[in-house]
């Protein structure tokens, strides 16, 4: 960590010399500007322009449409005025409309986008063209806000404390904003210029206009903003916000068969936000409780790799963009999961918990406290530091199932050339206090350090990116041997020659990536990339990594048509290709993909695509779960979907996908219809269903070692059916009082047959790769049933302060027989099981000085 802090100082010194003379992009037009007026008397926030300051402010009205017709004069006029005083930033916007009776006023909970008009203010108070804040409101007064990082990454978990009032009148509608300066970050200077922009949505025409013009083919968001000038005399106080809270909850604990107890618990804690300086803010939480957060969706994972779950806890979501360092991230792959920082590791389910044998053991690790420092300096240095402490957890017999642990991360990015070039570093560290119960299973220390580089040129249209990371984990020999044998590594593969050593007490590895891309300008975009993960790379103590021992080259190209014509409002067509190998060069995949997405003139969306793989001689080195590699054949996976017009009272959608592999012996398909209902201006609901059928002729079954110490790598033919439903209901009494309900039943059942063992995994012919395995006569069946529900009443009784009433319910039933029941019968059986209920009341109060 000392080396990281030293590097930060060097970055900042270099930035001070470099950015002082930084110039805008060559040939870039000068940004549009407007002038703010000082408010001698603050306006009354009521959505009306009869205050003295609004009469004095000079409006801007030169908005231009950017969707669907970029650069066209908008259908309706928009005027905006800006003012400020020593405490607040004010904006008044008048949205003219020839038919104000048709302006749809739809209520929803905060941060939910409704199919109605919207006005959004975008502020880059640092004026660094990389960060910022968004404040949006619809005609019903429903607020949305985001924090911006990396010139366009939007963090919707950020909830600022601000006000907005709207009115609908004979001229159209208005919005009046009051944004406390305590919610913004800006340099300590006598005069300020903020990056500034306004977006207006006219939803019934699916049109969007902005000041200044936002160009969809140009990269970035903050870098396209205009400027608001003439802001003088602002102080930059050291803000202090406290939010103490108290929680009472009643939970269900299972002590044994048909033996349940319902203890009542009362806890409290506090969230804190303090401005260390004009550039840095510390956020801390003590004894946090996230009981109001929706439970994870039900899932049955029969694969080798860990399931990724989204972070839902507000403390860890807010500002996460500053801590992010993606790995194996490129356009052809999903960039939303593999990362050096995966906050779900903090407060995770105890790693040695056996919920079946000991259901009364804790299902989550207690977080003593966590703190993070985030900010950005005038020199262009973005900084994120997080530290968290978690408690040790024990089972009913007093054995440790999760040791006391400390998690730390430092992430910094230094921008040059007004954000066109950037260099970043990251360091993460996990320390665990192991004991006799945990030292043979868990690593004691995990260290990861890395750097990344980004350079834009040709007015930001082209970009080069590079990343380099190293890792080292250490612990007892048994724990490191388990790490080597895990699905991430499988270093013990008999044909891998990867240096498996059960006597090791540490493991090290590296990751590297380089990309070249064109992300803006014209219709054509592309990206080509190469990435390599060594066999010993390990980042899962505080990150998320599915596998090591892997390298890949991938290329993506896109044609985007954003100008409407007779057939489409917009269209994008993508073509991808990729080739994967192990780090030693064994081919894993050669595949191509194409997909198309277009919006019809009636605002319906159509999506279609397909992937063909298995070209040439390729192998699966993970299929036998630590055994020899298995040759694979051609694969084909088509998919498609249709989405209805979001303005309709009932919005339908349906997604279809399928697959065929193993020469037709294996195949799958799934159907996922969904309906969204607008019951009234205050209530909306959605009902979704998913049905899938999976026939896998080489589903891994088990690795069985016989009495002669011979390991049999067994596979079976699997017939699996999975059905799930999801129901959501949202009722909004007012923008401050909302009710949400969510329910999801889930059933997945399957039959195994034709049990075989691996004979010659590399044989060219499928039939020669396996032989019958007769030691097990009946491979068995399974039937997994789960139910998750969540009901939350939220009342923001004053700005920043809220009361939550929560009811969560879960039910589970696992059976080793497939059964003959229909989905309805399975659900009926599930509801005969005892429910795990949690009732919770949480109250918080926001204090600001």
Structure explained in plain terms:
The chain is mainly beta. Among the domains are: 31-232, Immunoglobulin-like; 623-636 and 645-844, no CATH class. It is 6% helix and 50% strand. The strands form 6 sheets. The protein has a 24-stranded antiparallel β-barrel. Strands 1, 3, 6, 7, 8, 9, 12, 13 and 14 form a 9-stranded mixed beta sheet that branches. The longest helix has 18 residues, at 2-19. It is globular. The model is unreliable at 1-24 (pLDDT under 50).
Q: What overall geometry do the principal axes of the alpha carbons give?
A: globular
Number of helices: 6
Cα distance, first to last residue? 33 Å
How many strands? Answer: 46
Query: Average pLDDT across residues?
Result: 90
By secondary-structure content and strand pairing, the structural class works out as mainly beta
> Helix proportion of residues, in percent?
under 10%
